[in-house]
Design a protein that fits this description.
Chain lengths: 343, 559
């Protein structure tokens, strides 16, 4: 895709706010997409991520702030004139239209000729692996097939932005993983700027170029999946994404002073150390200060919980080398992998 | 108890279910056989046999040879089609205004829609006479002579009666349309008009077809309005009444009744197809929130007002006229009209209350146990059961009433049935059996299967499970079925009109008799009493249902 097109489709959101009947649900949201980027809005249910997506789509009005596309302010531009594509969790397809009619819908509205529509429909159904289902009605398809058709329909009009609202959450676990892979490949190939809402951290980490982690109507952190995981900035991000143990400053000073080195200066209670289970080493040692209380077998790793001066510390170990519950052990935390998060 | 004894328990429970199941199913099925299948079979049989019990088409030949009957048939058809066209289009607009606009006063709209449901079925006709008739308000004010009696008066009254039913049916499909269909179309670039054509209309098309059939059937088989306002415009329903009640010719009545079964049977067939084709929506459908649009709301508001005003006006004027000294010449207030010229005074209202409460009690109990039993039925047994339970939907009250006359005026059951309150209770209950049954079956679907299984695993018996799990969840449905049967029994005319006796009269019939005697103001007074009683019942229903559903909602957090 050429540079001009890429620039014209750059989506940016600036200090956006939204209240419903005086109750604020989004605070000061800013987000700037790069050309062809896949961004995931990740957060627990009720954090406002779907509202944000709907505002960007034009289905909801913002209370304050702006949404721009390639520098053009979208305020007052109704959804139908934005030229976006959208896929919902369910109810995506028009139940009374066939697969082909669904996919061709946006083009027919734009007045495309019958021949142009049908060749584009064939192309997209081929691309999404749905060739041969053109004449079916939505209820004759499985959930995964319906979502493939919904993707094809959204892509048919060459959308400037593709919006995905929890597109996989109504699907079985296996279909979900398979479809996730297909969407990933398709998006990388077409390079359509994509914004996806999800509450599934694994989905976000696998698919996204960047993840915007949301909590209570705010974006807490934006970063690549690796950054978000390895360098969380807030306690919420640290606990929502992956497993971690959070240690307060006084505790660290007392039992793991080596970690203090990376601590930003600030009030005693302003920061906590976030320690990922794979960055902790636990050695069985009768004179150690931690006691193993529980071991969970997770397949490729075993997750050990140890009681360490009143904290429950999570440690990942190779499943064949785990201690037994009740064993005493000494703890070593890798200072280079410890992150300090705001509380 | 040892572990081994515990593990045997489920087997024992599985066997314990059978007698309970048989006990639950027996009485309702027996009732359907005696009070629906048998009378219907007799009517059809009677229409094909002569007075000497030999097979013959003579009755139909007589029908076809009678210019009177042919004319009435043609009239019924013309009137039915006209009413259907008006009700369906106006009803669609009102339903659309209720669910796809930001109009204020939707509660008031719903109230007006409720009026025809809780008023005796000829109130609309009475109202129009008070309004537009020879001694009507409009004539009094303007001096215009409107020839009301006949086709257009009848169409008007029946359209008022049919419209709320269309709104009800169309509303349910508008409600179930998920917001995301509209969102999807919007993002794809569809205009509002396109969205209406591509989403709203397709989603409603089956409901519209179903509503059309329901209205057509109700209109063609209703004779409360036809008698009051039809004048010389004879329709099949009045014809059948003349044959049976006037000339006591059951055979001809049976033949016309069988003919009247046809549109109803057809409408049931269509309804079944519609139900199968209906778009299944999963849980968690999001309610459509119409965007702000002043032009749309103004247009819809005006159209809905125009559609609902006649209903409100006709009902209100009946109440008003009931208090007038001499309508419409002396409008001073009086209670004189409430001293009715009926031998038994207000006793029919008391009888109606008795009949309606009994029909509601017995009916709810029978429907509940049938719906419970039905959950355990499989294959052809289930199909037969649901056919029998839904069969009454295809039987106009008129035909059912004649069926009861034919079946119970002699024979083994006539001794204690004919002229008793039991036959009225049965007629009203079985007339509305299908609707009650459908409500009950869908209400029982709300019972969480997981909770039932949990109670089962904890070792509760069948009876216990019904009492402790099913009943609390079904309570709102039981309440609404109870009051549905009660309301319909209070106001329905068409079945029981053949079954009342001078000694045992019903309120809805009394209204008709007063009107036929020329005591129109007293008919209005009587109708007002019925509306008040039924209205109070509706209020009680709202309250009871709200409480029951609150309980369910609370317990749902646990479940």
């Amino acid at each position: 895709m050429d540079a001009v097109h890429a620039d014209a489709t750059r989506l940016s959101v600036d200090s956006l706010g939204k209240s419903f009947d005086g109750v604020p649900v989004l605070h000061d949201i800013s987000l700037h997409a790069q050309a062809g980027e896949f961004i995931c809005l990740l957060g627990p249910s009720g954090c406002g991520k779907t509202t944000l997506l709907r505002i960007i789509a034009g289905l909801e009005d913002a209370s304050s702030g702006t949404v721009r596309l390639g520098g053009r302010d979208l305020a007052g531009v109704p959804a139908r004139e934005r030229g976006f594509g959208i896929v919902f969790q369910s109810y995506s397809l028009f139940p009374t239209m066939t697969v082909a009619q669904n996919v061709g819908y946006g083009m027919r509205i734009r007045g495309a000729s019958g021949q142009a529509v049908s060749s584009r429909v064939d192309e997209l159904l081929g691309m999404t692996g749905m060739a041969g289902h053109a004449g079916r009605l939505p209820w004759q398809l499985s959930g995964g097939q319906q979502q493939r058709v919904a993707m094809a329909r959204a892509l048919a009009v060459n959308p400037s932005v593709l919006l995905l609202d929890e597109p996989f959450s109504a699907l079985d676990a296996r279909v979900r993983v398979q479809l996730r892979g297909e969407v990933h490949a398709l998006q990388r190939r077409l390079r359509v700027p994509t914004l996806m809402v999800t509450h599934d951290q694994e989905e976000a980490l696998v698919l996204a170029d960047r993840v915007a982690c949301m909590n209570e109507g705010r974006i807490e952190q934006v970063g690549t999946p690796r950054e978000i995981y390895a360098r969380p900035r807030t306690r919420f991000v640290a606990s929502f994404i992956g497993a971690s143990t959070l240690l307060d400053t006084a505790f660290v000073r007392g039992y793991a002073p080596a970690l203090l080195e990376g601590r930003p200066s600030g009030a005693e209670n302003a920061f906590e150390a976030c320690v990922r289970p794979e960055d902790v080493r636990l050695d069985v040692d009768p004179s150690g200060d931690a006691r193993v209380v529980d071991i969970q077998f997770l397949g490729s790793v075993a997750r050990v919980t140890a009681q360490w001066h009143g904290k429950l510390l999570l440690v990942d170990m190779h499943p064949s080398r785990t201690p037994a519950p009740g064993d005493m052990a000494s703890v070593w935390v890798d200072p280079s992998h410890c992150t300090w998060v705001t509380t | 108890m040892s572990a081994a004894a515990w593990s045997l328990a489920p087997v024992r429970r599985e066997r314990a279910w059978r007698p309970v199941f048989i006990a639950l199913a027996t009485l309702p099925v027996l009732g359907l056989a005696v009070f629906v299948a048998w009378p219907l079979a007799l009517i059809v049989l009677r229409s094909f046999t002569g007075d000497d019990h030999a097979w013959t088409f003579a009755r139909y030949a007589t029908l076809l040879a009678s210019p009177r009957v042919l004319q009435a048939g043609w009239h019924s058809l013309a009137m039915g089609v006209t009413v259907t066209a008006i009700s369906v289009s106006a009803g669609f607009v009102v339903a659309f205004a209720l669910h796809r606009s930001r109009l204020r006063g939707k509660a008031a709209m719903r109230f007006v829609l409720l009026l025809p449901i809780l008023s005796p079925s000829l109130v609309q006709a009475l109202g129009i006479i008070f309004l537009l008739g020879r001694a009507g308000l409009v004539h009094q004010l303007t001096g215009w002579n409107i020839d009301l009696y006949g086709f257009w008066g009848l169409v008007f009254a029946n359209a008022c009666y049919g419209l709320p039913q269309v709104v009800l049916i169309v509303s349910s499909s508008l409600e179930r349309t998920d917001r995301r269909y509209y969102d999807g179309a919007e993002v794809l670039g569809a205009s509002r008009w396109r969205q209406f054509l591509d989403i709203t209309l397709p989603q409603c098309r089956y409901a519209l077809v179903a509503a059309a059939f329901v209205v057509f059937t109700v209109t063609v088989t209703d004779f409360g309005n036809a008698i009051v306002i039809g004048g010389r415009y004879r329709v099949l329903a009045t014809e059948i009444y003349a044959e049976v009640a006037g000339q006591l010719d059951f055979g001809m009545g049976a033949a016309i009744g069988t003919v009247l079964l046809l549109p109803a049977v057809l409408s049931i067939a269509v309804e079944r197809v519609v139900a199968r084709r209906r778009v299944r929506t999963a849980d968690g459908a999001m309610v459509v929130q119409p965007p702000r649009n002043l032009a749309r709301d103004t247009a819809l508001g005006l159209m809905a007002f125009a559609a609902l005003l006649p209903i409100l006006a006709t009902t209100a004027i009946v109440v008003y006229a009931s208090f007038a000294r001499l309508w419409p010449y002396k409008l001073g207030m009086t209670l004189a009209n409430y001293h009715v010229n009926l031998a038994d005074g207000f006793a029919p209202i008391v009888t109606s209350l008795e009949v309606s409460l009994l029909a509601a009690f017995v009916g709810t109990a029978l429907l509940f146990s049938l719906a419970l039993a039905q959950r355990r039925m499989r294959g052809s047994l289930a199909a037969a059961c649901s056919f029998l339970a839904l069969l009454p939907a295809a039987v106009p009250g008129l035909v059912l009433g004649i069926g009861y006359l034919v079946a119970f005026n002699d024979g083994p059951l006539s001794g204690w049935l004919y002229g008793s309150i039991a036959i009225l209770v049965a007629c009203n209950f079985y007339h509305y059996h299908a609707q009650g049954y459908l409500a009950m079956v869908s209400g029982l679907r709300n019972v969480p299967a997981a909770l039932e299984e949990a109670v089962d695993c904890l070792g509760a018996g069948t009876v216990r499970r019904i009492g402790e799990v099913v009943l609390p969840y079904a309570a709102p449905t039981l309440a609404s079925v109870f009051f549905f049967l009660f309301m319909r029994s209070m106001v329905t005319l068409s079945g029981v009109v053949f079954l009342v006796t001078p000694a045992l009269n019903l309120a809805a019939v009394a209204v008709m008799q007063l009107d036929m005697n020329g005591s129109v103001s007293q008919a209005a007074a009587y109708a007002t009493c019925v509306m008040v009683v039924t209205g109070l019942a509706v209020a009680a229903m709202r309250l009871a249902a709200a409480r029951a559903s609150m309980m369910v909602k609370r317990s749902r957090h646990v479940a």
